[in-house]
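Form 7-S
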Amino acid sequence: MNSRCMTDCATMTAALINIGLPVRNGQAYLADAIESLLAQTCDDFTLTIYDNASTDDTFEVAQQFAARDPRVRVVRHEHNIGGVRNFVLAAEQATAEYFCWMAHDDLREPTFLERMLELFRIHPDTALACCAVRDIDPDGTPRTIRPETALLRTMTSQTDAAQRLVMYLQEAPGTPFYGLFRTHALKAHLHELQRTDDDADRPLLGMDMIFLAGFLRAHGLVVSSEPLIHFRRGGLSHRIDLYHSLRDFLYSAWRFHRMLADATRLSNASIASRWRVRWARWHYVARYFLSQPMRRMLWHYLSQAMPILAQLHAWWAHQHDPAFVRLRQRAKQLPAGSRIVLFGAGKHTQRCLPIIRRALGQNVHIVGIVDDHKKPTASIGGFPIFHPSDLQQLQADVLLISSDTYESALAQRAAACRPDGASIWCIHDLSLEASANDRSCSSTNLMNDSSSSAVSQCVASSMLTDCETLACSDSQNAMRC
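Output:
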């Protein structure tokens, strides 16, 4: 650990709230996250950034903020200590009355801290204050409020523990993990978070949900319906290749169920209460593993173990999935021999390449894949990966945006480097094509203006990896689902 930071820690002025921001390789969004905290209407806080041996410019970005604002400090680990351990350390070192974690790629509304403190004043017997959460795209575009947060309601510590657990297990969202805790209550349960990290080679599904279930078994919760937290989509928890194999995935699923059972065990409750909690847990686990992200992850590993399944899925999807049916119909209208370049080399391209190839048919040719983060000799499905500077020599007729979560950001990036004569197609959202294909003076100026912002710089430099670049941003994103 950096000795200079330890000295700064010892001389830090006491504050009402300590905020811990664990991060690894998060330079793309870190500045925006810090800015959202420094803009809080309640300024009685300190922010400590725990840099987990980042290999990018994360530490330099954090130092710039520490130099300009005395509330910001930086702790740098010389070696990667693991994501969970970094989170635990941030809470262990808290000395203020209240504490909250902050993810490096999320944003907080200016009134977040003020509103959470107000909730604690109204409900002094609760230990966790949280709020509704709004999703945002990687480029910052706001999306819908997460529906699972609407099912949370205020439950004080005077409420029966079984009632609190049954309420939480309706959806078991991980979002309250980023709420405001009473520090003394949080520290009493940190061992429950630490034990989810026993097997570092296999990250555990739903670490935040397991921890919150154990915490709410003993403490109350107060909730605001205002969406004061913004979660950026595309985090580590939704990566389909998070585990090495089908065996690793099934092992993690088994551990999740076992540890959630431990976290919700009520040894002193009545038989009826224990069965209510057990039924709620079984019901939740069943719905969780039948959810779209989990189905997609399971299918990924099944198709790896049995390639015939991937071929059958590609055949079915290009015939019945509306997005790929539309792509198949459009490809038929292209002249024979048209050249297609896939734009984006992330998880969508890797997962859907067999479907894309079937949908495009034999009438056209995929000549390569373009990605800002090209690696020497890198390829996907036998197609080489090129840098956007090589687009002119590829002589593409169509740039096909191969993404779902990042389609908007990639369309903007493709518009900025599109060769003359090439069209931009989107697989999922055709409305993005109009502006991406518009080379008018106004659209060019708009692109130039937006490229100076922090968000657009991130889009231009990082988003082409779809979700893969974000995957190295420590394990904190695995704590949300």
